[in-house]
Amino acid sequence: TALDEARRADLVDIAAEKRGETEKAFRLFDGTRIEWVPKSQVEENIKDGTFAMPEWLAKEKGFI
After folding, report:
1. CA distances for 32 relative to 29, 42, 52, angstroms
2. What phi and psi, each to the nearest 5 degrees, are found at residue 10?
3. C or N terminus of the chain, fewer CB within 10 Å?
4. Which region holds residue 52: left if phi is over 0, alpha if psi is between -120 and 50, else beta?
5. pTM of this structure
6. CA atoms of 40 and 45, how far apart (whole Å)
């Protein structure tokens, strides 16, 4: 849907440390909180230690 496409377009980069991983999710620690996030919604940037995710997901998990 158009709403889903708009949500995918609004990506934010979160500085976080990977504290765990399964086949389908990352466990991320941002210095304040630890949350599981779905790999289907998150892209790991190994070069700078950030994780790109939709803004709505970052808000839902409390990263922003």
Report:
1. 7, 19, 18
2. -95, 70
3. N
4. beta
5. 0.82
6. 14
